[in-house]
DNA sequence: ATAGTTGCAAAAGCTTTGCAGTATG
DNA sequence: CATACTGCAAAGCTTTTGCAACTAT
């Protein structure tokens, strides 16, 4: 079964990335597109190593250096977001076409769920005003444990 | 000039730590108390290395291992809190006698300010309910830039 | 042709660990 | 006096960097 919505998103995102690279005079290498596509086929919150391993075991061979470079590039053009869920390890997820959301993390089993709350935006606006800051982004993580047992 | 409120806090916190160590059958070493006191004399959001360096240049000699061990111990008994402000570097601050607060970070100059907002607690309560989680803690960071120029 | 990119391996930065020696209870 | 803790150095892990080879433009 083919997920046509996903295929459309991927097509759109690849195009958007291509435009960005063109605009900023950076090269359209196959590695960059392959990494972006791989990221959009995932639904989890992965780390750089997991992405690297997954690409290696798939059709594609890339180096760790390129994975890290491309992740940074994708974060900078808002196609991917970067998180840290309590540890020193950076985690990533696709960003395009997703509404703003935050995360709730089980410190027991590591499960990560997403939630939305409009009050965050209110807090950002109010605090920007109050502290004389241009607030550009935020990160909100709730930590706890699943009530109905972990997987 | 002596800050008597600070001295009182330190006395109280050292006592509390002492009680905790006793209760959990851990040893009251001079290094542990020296590190705790040093932390409570700081007002910033420091990393382990800065604390280590500061202790070395002061009267006290401790090893990095002991600094890391003690920080973990202090976090676990809620006398110190651990943060990550966007990077992979852990930052710490004293926790006792401070009301719950979150952070707003300037991505330009690194300045860290604190703020309180009651809506966070509401969000934690509501999401715990909604997602069937026991929410134990959270971390909210706002990122942006100072409007009136950085230091 | 000429830079920007890649891959590899080495290095860097933060944190943890193993172990022998030390000091607490 | 038993053993938990310390200090030191080595190892671990994630991420970055240097450089020669490659390739997009």
Description:
- The structure is a homodimer of 151-residue chains.
- The radius of gyration of chain A is 17 Å and the shape is globular.
- With 151 residues, chain A is α+β, with helices and mostly antiparallel strands.
- Chain A starts with a helix and ends in a 5-residue tail after the last strand.
- The mean pLDDT of chain A is 94.
- The first copy, chain A, contains five helices and six strands.
- The first copy, chain A, has helices spanning 4-23, 30-41, 48-57, 64-76, 118-131; strands at residues 46-47, 80-83, 91-94, 102-106, 112-115, 133-146.
- Chain A folds into two domains: 4-94, Orthogonal Bundle (Arc Repressor Mutant, subunit A), CATH 1.10.10.10; 102-144, Ferric-uptake regulator, C-terminal dimerisarion domain (Dna Ligase, domain 1), CATH 3.30.1490.
- The A-B interface holds A 84, 86, 88-90, 104, 106-107, 113, 115, 117, 119-120, 122-124, 126-128, 130-148 and B 84, 86, 88-90, 104, 106-107, 113, 115, 117, 119-120, 122-124, 126-128, 130-148.
- Strand 6 (133-146) of chain A pairs antiparallel with strand 6 of chain B, so a sheet runs across the interface.
- Chain A binds a DNA duplex (25 and 25 nucleotides) through residues 25-29, 31-32, 47-49, 61-66, 68-69, 88-90.
